[in-house]
Amino acid sequence: MPEVIDITVEDDVDLPPRTAPRATRSNVGSSSVSATSDEIVRTGGRETVTVSFDLSTLRASWKKLRERLADALREREDRERERDAKTKLDGTAGLANADDEQAVEALSRVIDKPDFASMEAVGQFNLGFIIVRRRKQGGEGDGVDDVEMDDLFVVDQHAADEKYNFETLQQTTKIKSQQLISPEVLELTAADEVVALENIDILRQNGFELDIAEDRPAGQRVLMTAHPVSGSTKFDAKDLEELLNLMQDRPAGQMVRCSKARAMFAMRACRKSIMIGTALNKRQMTSVVQHMGTMDQPWHCPHGRPTMRHLSDLVGVGWDFRKGPWKVEWGAFGRVAASAAI
């Protein structure tokens, strides 16, 4: 019967001190080899040694390892899908998509305002559109999940410049006022009175001059002494009421405009903007694109015309901006564009 040796060291068993492995030399035939002896914990006098072994414990440990690996793989796949959703543009942001709301959602998901400052103006197309290139690293910034992003976009030069001019007019224009022969008492709710008092300067920017009569009853203390005038656009107390309603949901002091004023600014912005058919140099194209990074809503002009759409993902068509400005393989670009169209 073979001797059974339990390799578990008991507390009451004295073992010889362990020594570091030492090199020994043995002769096998005519050749001499060097071997390192294993560390010996306990030896038996017989050739056969049986070691205590729990197969169920091994199976349980292996099962736990497999479960942990599966969880890690699922977590990585989820992280990759989330990363791709933030960095990859699909067809919803392209020219073929007529749904502006869907395209805007796709663009705003992958383009941050600082991106406009680093976009490169590649050239002008058909004297109406600017071709720009956005190159950056996307991901968490730890180098593990970072991905290369290299995309071409087309910018409508008129729509983009119009939106910039529109938002500038919205923020900076003070509408002229015309004094009334006698102040007009405004019938306001208590809440509207509070809003009017908190936004006196904003209302003045919109052309409405107000006086506060502290001796009058609540709801009748606000008097309008002047109303806005601007060319053929006529304003009245209904426009003031619209402004007060808009101010209800915004912080005090934030600029708001009534619908008549916005329509007036949109018309002015359109007339003063870069027109289709105007040739632009690289400095002018870069200025138009960089202005988009200063806008609250850069994705369409005040008349609803889109300012930007995605053209193509250039990753894998011959350019790696981390390695150098190598020439783009435009033949490969054509194949990518053709497959995207299909």
Describe the structure.
The protein has 342 residues and is of the alpha+beta class. The protein contains ten helices and ten strands. The protein folds into two domains: 83-168 and 271-341, formyl-coa transferase, domain 3 (2-Layer Sandwich), CATH 3.30.1540; 174-269, MutL, C-terminal domain, regulatory subdomain (Ribosomal Protein S8, Chain: A, domain 1). The strands form three sheets. Strands 3-4-5-10 form a four-stranded antiparallel sheet. 22% of the residues are buried.
Précis, in short:
The protein is α+β, with helices and mostly antiparallel strands and 342 residues long. The chain is built from ten helices and ten strands.
Number of domains: 2
Helical/strand content category: alpha+beta
| Order of strands across the main sheet | 3-4-5-10
- What is the beta-strand fraction? 15-25%
CATH topology of the largest domain: formyl-coa transferase, domain 3
User: How would you state the average pLDDT, rounded?
Assistant: 79
Q: What is the CATH class name of the largest domain?
A: Alpha Beta
Oligomer: single chain
The span between the termini is: 77 Å
Look at the structure and name the CATH superfamily of the largest domain.
MutL, C-terminal domain, dimerisation subdomain
Provide a count of the helices: 10
What is the helix fraction of residues, given as a range?
Answer: 25-40%
Shape: flat
Task: Give a count of the beta strands, DSSP E runs of length 2 or more.
Answer: 10
Order of helices and strands: EEHHHEEEHEHHEEEHHHEH
Main pleated-sheet profile: 4 strands, antiparallel
Query: Radius of gyration in whole Å, from Cα?
Result: 37 Å
